[in-house]
Design brief:
The chain has 341 residues and is mainly β. The chain folds into 2 domains: 98 residues, SH3 type barrels (Roll), CATH 2.30.30; 216 residues, Lipocalin (Beta Barrel), CATH 2.40.128. The chain is built from 1 helix and 21 strands. The two termini are 37 Å apart.
Length: 341
C-alpha cells in the first residue's frame, strides 16, 4: 500500500511539473540581431524573465529586446491601462509587436508595454512575496529592538490581492515594553484606463498610542496616474468604518473618509533598488475636527539574488486621540534583512 502511494505521489509530481512548465518554443529577438528559444515567464518592472534550456532562468532588460514570438496566449498591459490578450508575433519593424486577439490583430508599440503574463500560469507562479527581520541591541541602555514584516501578493488578469503584516517590539530594562502590530488585507479590481476599485481590511495595536485594538474596513475607487516599466503612482479615495479601543476607553465605532496615494519605483541596474511609499489620510465623519494619518515608506537594496537589505519608515498621527494616555504621534525607522519570492 505504501509503495503504491509513493508511486502515485511521484506520478502526480511529474504530471504537475509538466503542466507548470511548457515547451521552450517562444522566441526572443534582440536588438543586436541575436535570438533565443525559451519559455517567456513574465514582463515586469522593465525586465523580461525567460527560461531556456541553455541558460536557465534569466532576466533581460526590456529595451534590449527587438521583438517576441509565441503561439501561447499572453495578457499585455500598456501604459494607458489598456489590456490585450492573445498570441504574439513580430511586427513589420523593430519595436512593433503584433497580438493575435479574438477580435483580430492589434499592433503595439513595445515601448508602451509595461506588463506581459502568460494566461496559463499556475497558482504559485501568480504569487509574489517577501519576509524580513531586523534586530538591534544597545548595551549602554540595555535595550533590544525586534522588527519583522511579511507580505504576499496574488495577481490575476483582472484583480489583485495582497496581505501584509508588520511587528515591532522594544525591550528595555526599567521601562515598559513597547510594541506595535499591524495586519492589512487589500483587494483591487482593475478596470480600463487605469481605474480600479479596492476593498481594505486592517487591524492594529500600538502601545505607544495606548491603542489596544483598532479594526478598519471599507473601500473606494482610484486611478493609476503614472504607469511605466519602472514607476507607478496611484491616487484613491473612499469611506471606511473603524472600531477602536484604547487602554482607558470602551470600544467605539467611527466613520471616516479615506484618501491617499501610493508610489513605487524600481531601478534594475545592479544593485537593484526598489522604493515604495503609501500615505492614507483619514478625516473623521463622526468626530468633528479629528483626523488621522498613516504612512509607510521603504527602500530595498538587493544584496544577492532574492536577498535584500531594507530601511523602512513608519508614521502614525492622530490629531485628537480618544485616550488621555495616548501620544498623538508614533514614528519609527528600522532596518532589516529579508528574502523575496
Amino acid at each position: 500500500m505504501t509503495s503504491r502511494l509513493l508511486i502515485a505521489a511521484v506520478l502526480w509530481l511529474v504530471t504537475a511539473t509538466t503542466l507548470w512548465s511548457r515547451d521552450k518554443t517562444d522566441i526572443v529577438y534582440f536588438v543586436n540581431g541575436d535570438r533565443i528559444f525559451c519559455e517567456i515567464k513574465e514582463l515586469k518592472r522593465g525586465r523580461l524573465t525567460v527560461k531556456s534550456v541553455g541558460f536557465g532562468t534569466i532576466n533581460i532588460e526590456w529595451d534590449k529586446i527587438a521583438n517576441l514570438e509565441s503561439t501561447f496566449a499572453f495578457q499585455l498591459e500598456l501604459q494607458s491601462g489598456i489590456r490585450y490578450t492573445g498570441s504574439l508575433k513580430p511586427g513589420p519593424e523593430v519595436g512593433k509587436l503584433e497580438v493575435e486577439t479574438a477580435a483580430g490583430t492589434s499592433r503595439l508599440d513595445m515601448a508602451r508595454v509595461v506588463t506581459a503574463k502568460p494566461l496559463e500560469q499556475s497558482f504559485f507562479q501568480r504569487m509574489d512575496g517577501s519576509v524580513s527581520i531586523g534586530y538591534d541591541f544597545t548595551q549602554a541602555s540595555t535595550s533590544t529592538n525586534w522588527n519583522s514584516s511579511a507580505s504576499v501578493f496574488y495577481r490575476t488578469e483582472k484583480w489583485e490581492a495582497n496581505a501584509s503584516a508588520a511587528s515591532l517590539i522594544k525591550l528595555q530594562d526599567g521601562a515598559d515594553e513597547v510594541s506595535r502590530q499591524n495586519g492589512r488585507f487589500q483587494y483591487t479590481r482593475f478596470f480600463q484606463k487605469r481605474w480600479f476599485a479596492l476593498g481594505i481590511a486592517q487591524a492594529e495595536q500600538n502601545s505607544n498610542q495606548a491603542l489596544q485594538i483598532r479594526g478598519l474596513g471599507g473601500g473606494g475607487i482610484g486611478r493609476r496616474l503614472i504607469q511605466t516599466n519602472r514607476t507607478a503612482i496611484s491616487l484613491f479615495g473612499g469611506l471606511v468604518v473603524t472600531r477602536e479601543k484604547f487602554e482607558d476607553t470602551e470600544l467605539v465605532t467611527n466613520s471616516e473618509a479615506a484618501g491617499g496615494f501610493s508610489f513605487d519605483t524600481f531601478r534594475f541596474t545592479s544593485p537593484e533598488v526598489q522604493i515604495t511609499a503609501d500615505v492614507l489620510f483619514l478625516p473623521s465623519l463622526t468626530q468633528a475636527g479629528r483626523f488621522r494619518v498613516q504612512a509607510n515608506a521603504s527602500a530595498r537594496l538587493e544584496l544577492l539574488k532574492d536577498l535584500f537589505w531594507q530601511i523602512a519608515i513608519y508614521e502614525s498621527f492622530d490629531s485628537d486621540p480618544q485616550s488621555t494616555l495616548a501620544n498623538r504621534n508614533d514614528f519609527s525607522l528600522s532596518t532589516s534583512f529579508g528574502w523575496s519570492f
